[in-house]
Design a protein that fits this description.
It is built from 14 helices and 22 strands. The chain has helices at 40-59, 62-78, 80-91, 95-115, 154-166, 180-191, 206-215, 228-238, 263-275, 295-307, 327-342, 394-402, 417-426, 459-464; strands spanning 7-9, 12-14, 20-24, 31-36, 122-124, 131-139, 142-146, 169-173, 199-201, 219-225, 244-248, 253-257, 285-291, 346-349, 365-368, 385-391, 406-407, 409-413, 431-434, 449-450, 453-454, 467-475. Bound molecules: NADPH dihydro-nicotinamide-adenine-dinucleotide phosphate and glutaric acid (GUA). Glutaric acid binds next to loops. Residues 146-150, 173, 175-177, 206-207, 210, 225-227, 230, 233-234, 248-250, 282, 380, 382 line the site of NADPH dihydro-nicotinamide-adenine-dinucleotide phosphate (NDP). GO terms for molecular function: oxidoreductase activity.
């Protein structure tokens, strides 16, 4: 019998009597579990619970809240293999990557268990002898979090952990395609003794749940990771009650390989950045600009590495690239490849769907002779495609890299220190991987410029998003 996972609001598991949603393995298309389908009423009840829990949770000391987070961290660490397997089953990424994500996700909990103790205020010298100017940071209040399917654990912990550490309570909705890891994380939060109402999870109609939270003036902060389209919609709705908003949206990351780059390092960076999670990451390399003098050497090295990547079910040993999340995702990659090839791009390796599997598998693909008008050079592919084009001059490539409404991650490979700084500073992106294809880490600020979003997650920057600044003017 298919296992039914329940939802959790106000310290109670519920949902047996609701309609059900099937959770489908992207590797096999089999139904692996079911979750209840919550709607508006459940979303409102979640806010009722979070609001009721807010006062007592926010009044705990940062050390007490940190202790709950430490216990949660330990329980997740003990279960990292179980969580990793569940994640692979529902999301598709290879098991070693899934376990890596659990560790990464847990790193945010550990970091914020500590960082909550360092929410400092200020005393500012006054202009009047009988006045004192005090500045205090306070939790923003109830937080609503909406997360995507591509990182079923990390996108949750990097929102929930700083919110909890700051003294906020949380209502959250994971993606319908990947709710199981999220529910398991909440089970462990309950086991860690986190009081009822502090964390509440619902899954179901995203528009009903999102709207209920947007319209509710008790929710003081919205944090979202997902598509730019939905991010804009949520921001517009949040304006009605003037919520604080953090948005981590789409990217379109350029990779710049200069003529003085260490090409082995550059290829390793592209492989790390591009093929993680089958290319379904908002910081994935999406377009590669290689100096014309090193293009052939770069392509040869890249193809050598890509040839060795094994595509398959993420649960199988040795799999490097799992299935894409669904048919639409596969169609998008195929369309990007076809568009480029029809306009004269050269297929260096890959280029096809893998038809003899039940899941949505696509070959790791490299295209050369690509130009800036092709769809793949303007739109996030979210799949295992590396389009390679050439450039002649530094100014030219900076201009082309910045020619996008997105501004999340970018990558530069060069062994020249002055050039490295010059280019990093000229790129209009929130993240620059300088000779580094894997910049994500819990202590660093993750987030984008322009239409890639607002706010930062990670490090001390990430906890600021859950705080209000209060100024107390004291007359002596
Ligand atoms: N920045 C990033 O990390 C991500 C970027 N993307 C980009 O977005 C594209 C589309 O992916 P997709 O999964 O559809 O992204 P979405 O933005 O649709 O989904 C992200 C989250 O938002 C929820 N959601 C969707 N519509 C609403 C709504 N009206 N109100 C409230 N919540 C809503 C989803 O719920 P539900 O699952 O129930 O639909 C999910 O929890 C990808 O191809 C990729 O380009 C996608 C995922 C992550
Ligand atoms: O695609 C995303 O939004 C998640 C980014 C993963 C990371 O933290 O590196």
């Amino acid at each position: 019998m298919t296992k039914l996972y329940e939802l959790y609001v106000d310290g109670k598991w519920f949902g047996q009597d609701l309609d059900k949603i099937d959770v489908v393995s992207p590797a096999t298309q089999e139904v692996i579990a079911q979750v209840p389908k919550a709607g508006k009423d459940d979303a409102v009840k979640a806010v009722d619970a979070a609001e009721a829990a807010l006062e007592s949770w926010s009044k705990l000391t940062a050390e007490e809240r940190g202790q709950y987070l430490e216990t949660w961290h330990q329980l997740i660490d003990d279960e990292r293999e179980t969580l990793g397997k569940l994640m692979t089953e529902e999301q598709g990424k290879p098991l070693k990557e899934a376990i890596g994500e659990v560790k990464y996700a847990n790193g945010f909990i550990k970091w914020y268990a500590e960082e909550g103790k360092r929410i400092y205020g200020d005393i500012i010298p006054a202009s009047h002898p009988n006045k004192r100017i005090l500045v205090q940071k306070q939790p923003v209040g109830v937080v609503s979090a909406i997360t995507p399917w591509n990182f079923p654990a990390a996108m949750i912990t990097r929102k929930v952990a700083p919110a909890l550490a700051a003294g906020c309570t949380v209502v959250f909705k994971p993606a319908t395609q990947t709710p199981l890891t999220a529910i398991k994380l909440v089970e462990l939060a309950e086991k860690a003794g986190i009081p009822k109402g502090v964390i509440n999870i619902v899954v179901g109609s995203s528009s009903q749940i999102g709207k209920a939270w947007s319209d509710d003036s008790r929710v003081r902060k919205l944090t979202f990771t997902g598509s730019t389209e939905v991010g804009k919609l949520l921001m517009r709705d949040a304006a009605n009650t003037m919520k604080k908003v953090s948005l981590e949206l789409g990217g379109h990351a350029p990779v710049i390989v200069m003529e003085d780059a260490d090409l082995k390092k550059a290829v390793k960076g592209v492989i790390q950045s591009k093929f993680r999670n089958a290319g379904q990451t908002c910081i994935c390399a999406n377009r590669v600009y290689v100096h014309e003098s090193v293009e052939q050497d770069f392509l040869e090295l890249l193809k050598e590495e890509v040839r060795q990547l094994k595509v398959g079910n993420g649960l199988d040993d040795g799999t490097d690239i799992g299935p894409l999340i669904d048919e639409d995702a596969m169609k998008k990659v195929d369309e990007h490849v076809q568009d480029a090839v029809n306009q004269g791009a050269k297929l260096e390796i890959g280029g096809s769907k893998i038809e003899d599997n039940k899941g949505f598998y696509f070959e790791p693909t490299v295209l050369s002779n690509v130009n800036d008008d092709m769809v793949c050079m303007n739109d996030e592919t979210f799949g295992p495609l590396v389009p390679v084009t050439t450039f002649q001059a530094e100014d030219e490539v900076i201009k082309r890299a910045n020619q996008t409404p997105f501004g999340l991650a970018s990558y530069v490979f060069t062994e020249n220190i002055s050039r490295a700084f010059r280019i990093s500073e000229a790129l209009h992106f929130g993240i620059v991987g300088l000779n580094d294809g894997a910049p994500s880490t819990p202590q660093a600020p993750f987030g984008g410029f322009k239409e890639s979003g607002l706010g930062r997650e990670g490090g001390y920057y990430g906890i600021e998003e859950y705080l209000e600044t209060k100024y107390i003017s004291l007359g002596l």
